[in-house]
Amino acid sequence: MMDVIAGAFGTLKTASDIAQGLLALKTDTAVSTKALELNRVIADVQQQLFTAQTDYATVLRRVQDLEAQIVQFKDWQHEKQRYQLYELAPATLVYRVKPDMQNGEPVHDLCPNCYQDGIKSILQNNGYVKSHDSLTCPRCQTVLLLPPSKTGFIEISPAPDAWGNPRGF
Question: Residue 43 CB: number of other CB atoms within 10 A?
Answer without folding.
Answer: 11
